[in-house]
RNA sequence: GUCCCUAUCGUCUAGCCCGGCCUAGGACACCGCCCUUUCACGGCGGCGACGGGGGUUCGAAUCCCCCUGGGGACGCCA
């Protein structure tokens, strides 16, 4: 008799079981920003760790917008966050899911807890609580809720209230953090947190649990400023009858003075780095190395990261944001980047600087000439500026030093030689240039530097023949002539 | 104040879990030399750390305890 099992995709029931188990344990992680501003460097790293892990484990990366604070959440912020994640190359598999669309779900869950006697109405006013908190703090006590309404039996009609969770007061809550190890809190340290505000909207600690559970998130990977929330959330998982996920808390990013990274320390917005001429791969590479390592390796492509990233190699302690190292990585990626791609990006920055690109030289050639000299695209755009326009912006000290009358005759010789050259390529120009050196008996530098100033206005830049090639025959000759006209003593 | 986390060069880190291979490795930054038509790039070299005190051990950066430093949380923010 032929073996046919129902709904079994393979001939082996055992293998099927294993497959199913595999599907069940598939990693599901999420990034859950609140849309009250741009995507922060710290948030980006958290998102990156989640993204990397999901890709590596072939799991699912969910994006959830935590907008329960209706007053402070904006669509612009959502767009900004989405744009930044896209720029960094982190696509989510599910979402964005908006919590503001799920208020009915939260309300039902709160009702469930109230019905089961696991939550209660609290009529204390915000002002009263504030006073009690301050008093406790000045008396050196822990400023936790005193439980005034916890034992109240009757409900008071027509009086505003919040819903509080009736938290277990005895025992301890322990969880095994994937990064930090075992962490234990005494339950007496925790108070009855608010689940629902006076305006009937749910609060963060509650919705985060409901959503993570409902979305079947099995690893909560987030900043370690959430460690203190974790025991309360575990209690909520248990009260709601949900399985408790695993947790992994990544250490914070600090500023140079070891305080929490903020605007005081420089740009903290991901997109600000794009505007400052940074490449996304540089930021990704920098961010991932902040807290994670793979031996002595410094340079990682996204593909490598997906293969190599693991929680085991994430450090436990906070790290300081070091703009210099990010800059070095950026210069690395500019040096090794594809000129065609960089040209497109450079073009945007040139436009930003108000430079007319259309009648100018090949951008790719400029990129190649400047790749080794630019740490950012903004820098590159500034250095590229001298190839555009008709007027040369002279650095006065350079002009005074190199554009002197005694060079006039030599420039005439150079001009004549260049004018006779019709194959306008670097190698050919190099021959022409050397010919002039021979004719005049000058050393390379004695001619190259004045010529560089004449053509670009500055003493710095790429090889003189590369400059001439990029500039083109007409512009080179015109600028040389222009320089002769302004020679001084 | 209470609770939680944490501790290797100025910074990011390797090594720690499974003590000896560590005279503590790499990277950024800084300094010097070389290369060089300039500026860069690059190459070579230098500076530079196991927070302190107790244990355990023949032996501790590595294991244990205390202290100290740093960070976080203590919201009707997330």
Characterize the structure shown.
- By secondary structure, the protein is mainly alpha-helical.
- The protein has helices at residues 13-24, 41-56, 75-88, 103-115, 126-138, 204-214, 230-240, 270-275, 280-289, 302-308, 323-336, 339-352, 363-370, 377-384, 396-402, 408-419, 426-440, 444-456, 464-471, 473-485; strands spanning 28-31, 60-65, 94-98, 119-122, 162-165, 172-177, 181-186, 194-196, 219-223, 246-250, 253-254, 319-320.
- Strand 9, helix 7 (230-240) and strand 10 form a beta-alpha-beta unit.
- The termini are far apart.
- The model is unreliable at 1-22 (pLDDT under 50).
Key structural traits:
disordered N terminus; RNA-binding; mainly alpha; 489 residues; elongated; three-stranded antiparallel beta sheet
Q: What is the strand and helix layout of this fold?
A:
Layout lengths: L12 H12 L3 E4 L9 H16 L3 E6 L9 H14 L5 E5 L4 H13 L3 E4 L3 H13 L23 E4 L6 E6 L3 E6 L7 E3 L7 H11 L4 E5 L6 H11 L5 E5 L2 E2 L15 H6 L4 H10 L12 H7 L10 E2 L2 H14 L2 H14 L10 H8 L6 H8 L11 H7 L5 H12 L6 H15 L3 H13 L7 H8 L1 H13 L4
Parallel strand pairs: 1-2, 2-3, 9-10, 11-12
Antiparallel strand pairs: 4-5, 5-8, 6-7
The protein binds one RNA strand of 78 nucleotides through helix 5, strand 7, helix 6, strand 12 and helix 11.
Distance between the termini: 107 Å
Structural class: mainly alpha
Work out the helix count: 20
- The average pLDDT score comes to 90
CA gyration radius, whole angstroms: 32 Å
Count of DSSP E strands? 12
Helix content percent band: 40-55%
User: Which strand-content bin applies to the residues?
Assistant: 5-15%
Q: What strand order characterises the main sheet?
A: 1-2-3
Overall body shape: elongated
């Amino acid at each position: 008799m032929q073996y046919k099992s129902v709904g079994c995709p393979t001939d082996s029931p055992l293998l099927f079981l294993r497959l199913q188990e595999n599907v069940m344990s598939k990693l599901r992680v999420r990034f859950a920003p609140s849309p009250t501003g741009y995507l922060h460097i710290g948030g980006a790293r958290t998102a990156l760790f989640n993204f990397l892990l999901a890709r590596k484990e072939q799991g699912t990366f969910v994006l959830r917008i935590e907008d329960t604070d209706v007053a402070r959440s904006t669509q612009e912020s959502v767009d900004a966050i989405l744009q930044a994640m896209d720029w960094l190359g982190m696509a989510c598999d599910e979402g964005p899911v908006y919590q503001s669309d799920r208020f009915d779900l939260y309300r039902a869950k709160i009702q469930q807890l109230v019905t089961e006697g696991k939550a209660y109405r609290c009529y204390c006013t915000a002002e009263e609580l504030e006073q009690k908190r301050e008093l406790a703090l000045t008396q050196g006590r822990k400023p936790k809720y005193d439980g005034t309404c916890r034992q109240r039996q009757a409900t008071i009609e027509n009086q505003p209230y919040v819903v509080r969770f009736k938290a277990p007061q005895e025992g301890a809550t322990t969880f095994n953090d994937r990064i930090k190890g075992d962490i234990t809190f005494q339950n007496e340290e925790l108070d009855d947190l608010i689940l629902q505000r006076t305006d009937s909207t749910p609060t963060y600690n509650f919705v985060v649990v409901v959503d993570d559970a409902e979305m079947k998130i099995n690893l909560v990977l987030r900043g370690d400023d959430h460690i203190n929330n974790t025991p309360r959330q575990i209690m909520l998982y248990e009260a709601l009858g949900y399985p408790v996920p695993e947790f992994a808390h990544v250490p914070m990013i600090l500023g140079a003075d070891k305080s929490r990274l903020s605007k005081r320390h420089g740009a903290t917005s991901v997109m600000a780095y794009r505007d400052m001429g940074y490449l996304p791969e540089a930021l990704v590479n920098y961010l991932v190395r902040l807290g994670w390592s793979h031996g002595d390796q410094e340079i990682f492509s996204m593909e490598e990261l997906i293969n190599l990233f693991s929680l085991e190699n994430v450090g436990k302690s906070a790290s300081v944001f070091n703009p210099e190292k990010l800059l070095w990585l950026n210069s690395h990626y500019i040096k090794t980047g594809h000129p065609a791609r960089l040209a497109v990006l450079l073009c945007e920055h040139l436009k930003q600087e108000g430079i007319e690109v259309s009648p100018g030289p090949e951008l790719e050639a400029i990129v190649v000439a400047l790749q080794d000299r630019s740490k950012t695209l903004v820098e590159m755009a500034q250095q590229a500026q001298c190839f555009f326009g008709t007027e040369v912006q002279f650095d006065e000290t350079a002009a005074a030093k190199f554009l002197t009358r005694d060079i006039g005759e030599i420039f005439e010789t150079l001009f004549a030689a260049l004018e006779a050259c019709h194959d306008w390529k670097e190698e050919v120009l190099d021959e022409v240039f050397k010919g002039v050196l021979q004719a005049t008996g000058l050393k390379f530098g004695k001619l190259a530097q004045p010529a560089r100033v004449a053509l670009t206005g500055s003493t710095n830049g790429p090889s003189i023949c590369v400059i001439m090639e990029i500039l083109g025959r007409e512009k080179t000759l015109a600028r040389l002539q222009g320089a002769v006209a302004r020679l001084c003593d």
